[in-house]
Amino acid sequence: MQQSARRTLEFFFDFGSPYSYLAYLEAPRVAQRAGADIAWRPILLGGVFKATGNHSPAEIPAKGRWSKTDLARWARKYGAPFRHNPHFPINTLMLMRAAMGYQRQDEALFQRYVQAIFQAMWVDGRNLNDPAEIGAVLAQAGLDPRAALAMIDDPAVKDALKQATEAAVARGVFGVPSFIVGEELFWGNDRLHFVEEALTE
Predict the structure, then answer these.
(1) Which strand (E) or helix (H) includes residue 65?
(2) Residue 64 contacts residue 58 (beta carbons within 8 Å)
(3) Over the stretch 87-118, which tens digit does the pLDDT of each residue have?
(4) Cβ contacts of residue 142 below 8 Å, gap of 6+?
(5) Residues 177-190: pLDDT tens digits?
(6) Which of 41, 20, 16, 55 lies closest to 168 in space, CA to CA?
(7) Any idea where the domains of the chain sit in the sequence?
(8) What SS3 class is residue 77?
(9) How, if at all, do strands 37-42 and 178-181 pair?
């Protein structure tokens, strides 16, 4: 009997989204239960907002206050360490370019980088608006800050992130975290149960 092909969970994220951090912790569990693979899709949320007219919840005071409580609830549900970054909002352009650069270079380095930045952003409360602070985070993770800086300034990496963001918008992405299974789009950490259903259909 021929085994069915493994399905793929495309995961679109930006480090500036705390819900992306929570989904980053939970999506691998979902994929494992469903026997699926994850295709990591770093994109620039600012570019998505500009293209779609969407806005950050932080720009709406009532929603921003509610989100802090909601995030704490989800963190408790996942048993995840989490605290709101005191330096938020953080411009993630350099961070997302580096993510794209590492992904183009080496999957293991990419995964180490993603873990380090999410940890620094949403657990340790580091000021990732400061390039020196980013460099310190990378060095602590065993990554070369000079290599990361070179990737951030690489025109090919800049273009790759721009193209990835535009392609995501073209597929219907308007915020993060977003997930695509086949051609079906899901938005939000709280839609992962629907993602799991789609992966196992």
Answers:
(1) helix 61-78
(2) yes
(3) 999 999 999 999 999 999 999 999 999 999 99
(4) 112
(5) 999 999 999 999 99
(6) 41
(7) 8-200
(8) helix
(9) unpaired
Is 17 known to be catalytic? yes
The predicted pLDDT at position 55 comes to 86
Tokens for 123?
């657990």
For β-strands 178-181 and 184-187, DSSP reports them as antiparallel
Per DSSP (E only), the strands in 15-173 are 37-42
Residue located via tokens 């793929």: 8
Topology classification of domain 8-200: Glutaredoxin (3.40.30)
Among the listed residues 70, 152, 167, 37, the one whose alpha carbon sits nearest the alpha carbon of residue 104: 152
* 138 Cβ neighbours under 8 A, 6+ residues apart: 113, 116, 144, 145, 148
Rounded CA-CA distance 169/175 in Å is 9
Kindly give the residue spans of alpha helices, DSSP state H, lying in 40-154.
Answer: 45-52, 61-78, 93-105, 107-122, 131-140, 145-152
* Annotated catalytic residue, options 4, 17, 67, 178: 17
Q: How far apart are CA 139 and CA 151, in angstroms?
A: 16
